[in-house]
Structures are given as C-alpha cells and as structure tokens.
Amino acid sequence: MCPECGSQRTWKDGIRYTNLGEVQRYVCRDCGYRFSETSLNGSDDPEGVQNIHRLALNTPSDLLFNRQICVTQPKGTKNLAPKNMRGKTMTTIQEANPSALQQPQKPTPSNMKTKIVEYSFWMLKEGYAESTIISRTKLLKIMVKRGANLFDPESVKAVIANQKSWSEGRKANAVDAYTSFLIMSGGKWDPPRYKRIRKLPFIPTEAEVDQLIAGCGPKTATLLQLLKETGMRIGEAWRLQWTEVDMVSNTVRVTPEKGSNPRIFKLSGKLMAMLDAVHRRTKNNRVFSKSLKSQRRSFEKQRRNLARKLKNPRIREITFHTFRHFKATMEYHKTKDILHVMQMLGHKNIKNTLIYTQLVDFQDDDYISKVAKTVEEACQLVEAGFEYVCEMDNVKIFKRRK
Q1: Which alpha helices (H) appear in 204-319, and where do they start and end?
Q2: Which helix (H) or strand (E) holds 121?
Q3: pTM of structure
Q4: What is the number of structural domains in the chain?
Q5: pLDDT tens digits, one per residue of 130-157
Q6: What's 349's DSSP letter?
C-alpha cells in the first residue's frame, strides 16, 4: 500500500542495495510516489526514498529545480525494475499491456497545486501582466479549494456555476483563467457563457475624496492625491520612479500598463510638496517602496476608521480605482470633450473611455464665487481652481464648488 495516497496499485521499481542487504523499491501508479519497505532494525515502516514533491514549489525558479519526472513518462526515464514474476520485467509487462502505465494521474490537491505553479510560470514566460497572473492563479486556487478538479472541465463548470456570491463578471474572469490554463496544458473545453453586466461606477463627491485624503497618513495621502490629480491606475502609480517626477517643471511621466498610451501630467503645488516630503524620507528609487498588498491593507484600515469617525458609509466605497472614475467624470463634466478624457486615461479605444465616464448633476452643489478686476486677480483665481462664469460691470466672475 502506498504510504502517500493509500493506493494498492503499486509496482516493483528496482532493488536498493544497503550494507544490511537488498531492499525492494516500489512506485505508486496513482500518485507517482516512490518508496521502499524495509525490515531493518526490526521495523516494517515504509521509508521514503524519493519525496521530491514535498520540496518547495512556490516560485517558478523552485519549479525548474524541484519538479519530479513522472515514472510513467515514456522517454527520458530509466527502467530500474529487476527481473521478477518468472523473468518478466516491467518493460515486458508494459509491452503486454500498453495502457498499464498510461492511465491518467489521480487528481490530488498536491499535484493540482503544482500545476497551478506551472501555470503561473507559463503566464510569466508568455508576458502576462503581474496583476493578471496574480488574479488568475488566485481564482484557480479558490476553485480547487471549493472542489474543482482542474483535470476535468465539467467539474470546473459545476464549481463556477455554484458560486452564488460571484457576479457574472467574476465568473467570466474564472472562465478566462481556466481557458488559458487549458491552453498551457494542451486541453480543450466548451466554456460556459457568462456576460458581464456593466454598471455605472460609484462617484464620490470631491468633499468626500478630500476628507479621505486628509484622514490618511502622509504616504497614503500622497498616493491618493496623485491618483486624484492624474487618474492613474494603481499599478502605474505604484511602479512610479523618482526619475519620472520632474521637480522643476512639476510634471510626472506615466509608464502605462495594460496596453495603454504613455501620458504626462502637470501636478499641483500641493502634491509636489507632498512628494518632496516623501522624497526626503526615502532612499529608494521608487516613489512608493512599500508592497502594494501591504499598502492596500493599510489604506482599507484607515478608510474604515475614517468612515466610522465621520459617520459616512459612502467613504468605505472608495477604492484606489474609484479615483480613476472620479478624475474621468470630473474632466468630462468640465470639458465635455470625450477625446480629451480618452487621452488623459491613456485609452486606445474610445469604447473603454465611455465605461469610465458618466454625467453627474452638480446643480445642487454649493459654490464659492469670486470676482476679478485685473488680469493678475483672474490668474490667481484660475490657479486656485476657480472656473470662469461670465463678465458683468467690467469684472469677471468665477466659481468653484465648496
């Protein structure tokens, strides 16, 4: 009986020679585990000879050096079975019954986990974005944990269909993840159809955004202010280098992700002062050196505490990506130019821009009004964020939301 999976489908796999005599080796046909039974020191406990799959396989580099060649592989393996069973060797047995060693491997959490690691390494070699690799491997792990057999497409279909708490979009993402997994492993399936339901994004008020920024710590506040003024994706902001921030012209160059176009933004004096304070306290080449996962947890904690303090549950709905929605909506409301918004977001297809923008009615918002009698006063109001309204009695009237 195999000590690893309990299967009784074992083959003799050669002799192990020791100082105390010969020891018969075995291999399990179900899980591929090699072991030997010995009576040394009067013990009948099985001794693991090759337990390679217990080594770490958490990274692609470990996968290359720690993986085990399956004993059923027809090429590149050595037949160590001695003559037995009236002179017949394992090769003779296989020739008599070609399907004896070609049966599919029994699915176990261990070999499915190894396959997911291979899948992540395959995506890395194919040039997938880091965020895509993380999200797809996470979905596969969740499906395996909830009973899916990655070697059986029908099992995966059933698990996806049973996830009542998943939205149609998340189910579609799971289908995409498993489809690419089958491309890597050479399998095929008839994917189920899940249609993403497009919803208008949540857009907070500018006052709520400013309250959230003011209530966070210095580094988090700097990150949020950068997202508010530029509409960057969080991945673009997180990979930002100090060499891409021009402290002289107060601009930042954005290295795009997900096939977007590169952009350059003019930053406010407030944000430049916040970035300068961060620059003084760090020696790293990156603007935000903390891990994104750790920063996200810190942000969610500060957001939760602020929402409870201000008794405003809407603040808890604000995510990193909400700032991108907010910036796109504000720009479209101000300019009514969809091409300008498209360029600002870095989109190559205008259809994607329409998802990120929506018309918001600001008629009920309160405004501050100012008048300018000279060009210098008008310039100061514009720099302070005021918008020109009209001209009356030889003065120019400006407004800004509170």
Answers
A1: 206-215, 218-230, 234-238, 269-281, 292-310
A2: helix 109-126
A3: 0.60
A4: 4
A5: 888 989 999 999 999 999 999 999 999 9
A6: S
